């Protein structure tokens, strides 16, 4: 089960070296059922994780309405890193939207990564990937129309359209579910023209 995680590490930072057997003792595999909340906004997120299988989402709740920030599919990391590192309340919640299998890193595993040759660089690269993802999401919300965001999703992550319930997808795009239905019809009509 850990093979995809090690492949992820080697792809990101080939020079990273760590005793795999030692690392395994600090990593915990966990199955998460669809609908299960891994942590709520306001909880202390005491882990970061790698998604092996399934799909999760990070979201915030405002005025009794959910806003989806990110979807986390296979071979992606997730968690509230600031909450994890600084023991502060999480700023968002994370929920499985499919039955999923994840690999959990606790503080001991993170220390092992930090001390291993190339570990600091690996952690920096993971943090940079997350920062770029956040930057792209923020810019898209500020600059793109919902239709442009939808078209980017079709282009960059078309598999999500088959996996994500429509109300989560609408929330992710920043529109109401009814607007998503109209948007999809309009996009499909334009493609046929």
TrEMBL record:
CDD domains associated with the record: CAP_ED
Chain ranges of the Cyclic nucleotide-binding domain: 27-110
Pfam families in the record: cNMP_binding
Superkingdom of origin organism: Bacteria
Protein name according to UniProt: Cyclic nucleotide-binding domain-containing protein
Species of the source: Calothrix parasitica NIES-267
């Amino acid at each position: 089960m850990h093979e995809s995680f090690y492949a992820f590490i080697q792809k990101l930072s080939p020079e990273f070296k760590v005793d795999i057997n030692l690392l395994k003792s600090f990593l915990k595999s966990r199955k998460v059922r669809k609908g299960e909340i891994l942590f709520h906004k306001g909880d202390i997120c005491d882990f970061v994780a790698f998604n092996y299988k399934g799909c999760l989402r990070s979201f915030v709740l405002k005025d009794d309405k959910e806003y989806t920030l990110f979807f986390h599919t296979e071979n992606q990391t997730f968690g509230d890193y600031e909450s994890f590192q600084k023991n502060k309340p999480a700023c968002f919640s994370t929920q499985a939207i499919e039955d999923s299998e994840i690999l959990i890193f606790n503080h001991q595993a993170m220390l092992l990564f930090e001390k291993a040759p190339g570990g600091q660089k690996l952690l920096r690269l993971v943090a940079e990937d997350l920062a770029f993802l956040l930057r792209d999401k923020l810019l898209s919300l500020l600059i793109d129309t919902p239709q442009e965001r939808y078209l980017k999703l079709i282009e960059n992550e078309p598999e999500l359209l088959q996996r994500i319930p429509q109300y989560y997808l609408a929330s992710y795009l920043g529109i109401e579910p009814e607007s998503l239905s109209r948007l999809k019809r309009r996009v499909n009509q334009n493609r046929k023209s």
